Amino acid sequence: METQIIKSLQDIPHSEGKYLPEEQVKAVTEIHKALRSFPSDQLLQALYFMWDAAERGQLQMFLIGDTAKQVKANEDLEGDEITVGVRRNEWDSGQGRIAQTFMEHELGVKAVEVDGKVTYEYKGIPIIIKLYEENPTLQSFDIVYYGYETFNLPNPYKTFVEEYE
Predict the structure, then answer these.
(1) Domains of the chain, earliest start first
(2) End-to-end alpha-carbon separation of the chain, Å?
(3) For the segment 22-38, what is each residue's pLDDT rounded down to a tens digit?
(4) Of the candidates 142, 46, 145, which has an alpha carbon nearest to the alpha carbon of residue 161?
């Protein structure tokens, strides 16, 4: 029997020997995301944990991806991860080292950067930290009130999403 590595859902043959149509791939992906979704209060706890780590290190953490969209719209968090950004120069400095040391102590794992991202797991919830080089949208942040804290968003947010996300 030949062993085959499947790299994506598109590579899975269906019953007629053809590959899954794009619509089915999208549907299966959405179902997978829904199954991996965490309750809003658990996602909020993970976001507060990351906020705490950033504050301890005085990092100018900012929200990105679905996390930013939901916080900006003042919606309950949903999904399967928390996504934040940090300037690379801050992450590589003493500021970043303080935040990393706190997270390593609390979570019991060391940070490993892969492709410009660092991933931690807080009570089963992935926290994705994407490292960004300096750019104009990170020079001064928009502040958003959410839950009991304030969070940073790139400014202007729309430009950041179009050019850097």
Answers:
(1) 40-164 (3.30.460.40)
(2) 42
(3) 666 666 556 555 556 89
(4) 142
For residues 162 and 109, give the distance between their C-alpha atoms in angstroms, rounded to a whole number. Answer: 33
What the block records as the tokens of 120 is 């931690």
- The runs of H, that is alpha helices, within 20-146 are 22-35, 40-57, 65-72, 88-91, 94-107
Spans in the chain with pLDDT lower than 70: 1-36
The C-alpha atoms of residue 65 and residue 81 are separated, in whole angstroms, by: 10
DSSP designation for 115: T
Give the predicted TM-score (pTM) of the model: 0.78
